[in-house]
Design brief:
By secondary structure, the protein is mainly α. The protein is built from ten helices and no strands.
Length: about 220
């Protein structure tokens, strides 16, 4: 097979694995009530594509995966556009899709930025994971603060968050409260996701067959 064909096939396979890991994680009940899932390192295959084949190809793969994510989350996405409690103004719904899906998953392609700059593959890959997933986390924070900040007061008065929520509500209001809420809520799934994926990268990064580009036959 040609090198480009091998790259395409392997990337498609890794994206499929990422989607399966996402679905399995949801089946295990790891999805939060208002969106976001602690997954079984479902972002790792996409970051791995970027590490194996470069940032440009990684960004394209991340964009492709973002479209798959919208299909997997079709109920949430459609609810923003269709009449009902979750319906948004059209421009808001489009912006949420662009931020929380398209941009948030496309930036996973940044996972390959340390390849060749750090000698040890496991370290370079793990640092790439940190950059890529932190970028995704920041994008979710921005989106959440802008479009879901109105839920902040309600969220911090719920059972389980009351003690810390009371202090937060006393200290922040308006835009500041919306940002804190978004950092807190998105951190509930993104921080564990970053840690899990970082550890997976450190372990699997030591296996040459995984981190090296597939050879054409």
């Amino acid at each position: 097979m040609k090198k480009s064909t091998v790259r395409l096939v392997e990337s498609a396979l890794l994206i499929a694995i990422a989607a399966v890991l996402e679905l399995v994680s949801k089946m295990l009940g790891l999805e939060l009530p208002f969106g976001g899932t602690i997954t079984l390192a479902s972002m790792f295959p996409v970051v791995l594509i970027a590490y194996k084949y470069g940032v440009k190809w990684g960004l394209l793969s991340g964009f492709t995966y973002s479209l798959i994510q919208m299909l997997l989350g079709v109920k949430v996405v459609s609810a923003m556009f269709l009449p009902g409690e979750d319906q948004m103004i059209l421009w808001q719904a489009i912006c949420v899709c662009l931020l929380d899906y398209v941009l948030a998953y496309t930036v996973l392609g940044l996972g390959g930025i340390f390849k060749g700059k750090i000698k040890k593959d496991s370290v370079a890959l793990a640092l790439g994971v940190l950059v890529a997933l932190l970028a995704r986390y920041i994008i979710h924070i921005i989106s959440g603060a802008i479009f879901y900040g109105a839920w902040a007061e309600w969220f911090f008065t719920q059972e389980g968050f009351y003690s810390i929520g009371e202090k937060i509500l006393e200290s922040f209001s308006g835009t500041g409260l919306a940002i804190v809420y978004s950092i807190f809520y998105n951190g509930l799934y993104m921080i564990p996701e970053i840690i899990i994926t970082f550890v997976v990268a450190l372990v699997l990064g030591n296996i040459p067959q995984i981190v090296k580009p597939a050879k054409n036959q």
